[in-house]
Amino acid sequence: MDSGNQITTVFSKGWIFVLGICWTCFVDANDVNAQQIPQFSQYTFNSLHINPAYAGFKVDPFIQATYRSQFAAFPGAPETFSITADMASPDERMGFGASLISDRLGATKIQGALLTYSYRITVGEGAFLGLGISGGASEYSLDGDLLSPDDDSDMTIPTGRINMFTPNLNAGLFFNTENFFSGVSVFNLWGQRNLENRDLSLAVHNYHYFFQIGGIIPLAAESVIKPSVLVREDFSGPTSVDVNAMILLLDQFWLGTSYRTSFGKNNASSASRTGRRNAVVLLADLFLTDMLRFGYAYDFNLNSQSNFRNNSHEISLGYYLGSKTQYRNDYKSF
User: Fold this and answer.
1) CA–CA separation, 159 vs 7, rounded Å?
2) What pLDDT sits at residue 7?
3) What is the mean predicted confidence (pLDDT) over 110-136?
4) How many CB atoms lie within 10 A of CB 273?
5) Which of the four pLDDT bands, split at 50, 70 and 90, describes residue 155?
6) Which residues are bridge partners to 283 per DSSP?
7) Residue 1 has what DSSP assignment?
8) Alpha-carbon distance 48 to 28, whole Å?
9) Full-prediction pTM beyond 0.90?
10) Which residues pair with 67 in a beta bridge?
11) Which residue has the higher pLDDT, 233 or 204?
């Protein structure tokens, strides 16, 4: 078999693998409840949060810490903190990554750890396909002492802290050329059946799908525009869509915006008010030095109940451990 046929075979098997996973999850989709996994607005600069096949794409070792605070004025408001790290092998064929995440909402908390592996193949001149997988474990916990029940005698309300562990498995594909990228991934493939404790029903470990597409449009020697779209789907709640537009200025900092909306699966008027949220996100990413980058995102909700109390802030700090010779200023880091 010649190299061209080998590439075609691997490419086809890769898509068959992911599509097979998607179909298996789709068959079981009606048996799960909606519960979004932690959401980040700055995924446009670190897609490891949504696709394991992205591991190693930046080539040099890269570490990033991200903190997100939502609806900060409300008691028990969501807070998310993550640390991710990834790098490529010397031949840039393989990628390795690791991530830690903590997501708190009121009395509930989710903590997880993942190890990621990806393999990158050439599918054409200047075209590459990455196949990735990540695995680890998540802890779901509920602290009954943080609850404020109306009826203290209600025996169904837990006292103290209860928790449960479950394994986690994710898979994805990431395709890119010099000016185009697209990815598809599936999260929470394994471990859902472990969460049968009704006291932890808020932390349903259901399947999540991500589809991402975008590209780079050169404007001048040191300026480009990067439009992109991200679709989040779990087949249980509204479909979420992000439409993004970023511009690189002076080969040094990115500025942009994102519009987030959702549609479908809102059968009741109350669900429409709470489940369908529209938001505008302001994004900025600045290289403080050749190795250090700082990012900020501000989410402004546009729904009818919007006010300054329910907006969100997200801060990230990333550091390159290598020379960054190939990807100077992350120009091609989709």
Assistant:
1) 57
2) 40
3) 95
4) 13
5) low
6) 256, 297
7) -
8) 26
9) no
10) 81, 315
11) 233
The predicted structure's pLDDT at residue 207: 85
Q: Which amino acid is at 33?
A: N
Instruction: For the chain, list the strands marked E by DSSP.
Output: 62-70, 79-88, 94-105, 108-124, 127-143, 161-176, 180-187, 208-215, 217-220, 223-233, 239-249, 253-263, 279-287, 292-301, 312-320
Please list the residues that pair with 324 across neighbouring strands: none
Evaluate the CA torsion angle 196, 197, 199, 202 in order and state its sign: negative
Tokens of 237: 């709640």
pLDDT of residue 105: 81
- CA dist 155 to 142, 143, 152, Å? 15, 15, 8
CA proximity to 66, closest of 52, 53, 49, 54: 49
Q: Apex CA 189: angle with CA 185 and CA 195, to 5°?
A: 140
Bridge partners of 226, per DSSP, are: 246
Residue 108 has pLDDT above 90, yes or no: no
Q: How far is it, in rounded angstroms, from Cα 314 to Cα 304?
A: 23
- Residue position matching structure tokens 């394991």: 52
Phi, psi of 27 (to 5 degrees): -60, -35
In degrees, rounded to 5, the angle at the alpha carbon of residue 249 between the alpha carbons of residues 243 and 251 is 115
Give pLDDT, residue 325. Answer: 47
Domains by residue range for the chain, with CATH: 3-330 (2.40.160.40)
State the CB neighbour count (10 A cutoff) for residue 55. Answer: 32
- pLDDT tens across 272-312, in order? 434 457 889 999 999 998 889 999 999 888 875 555 556 88
In one letter, which amino acid is 312?
Answer: S
Neighbours of 82 (CB within 10 A): 21
pLDDT digits (tens, 9 = 90+) for 187-216: 988 876 666 554 555 445 678 999 999 999
- Six-digit token pair at 201? 């029903």
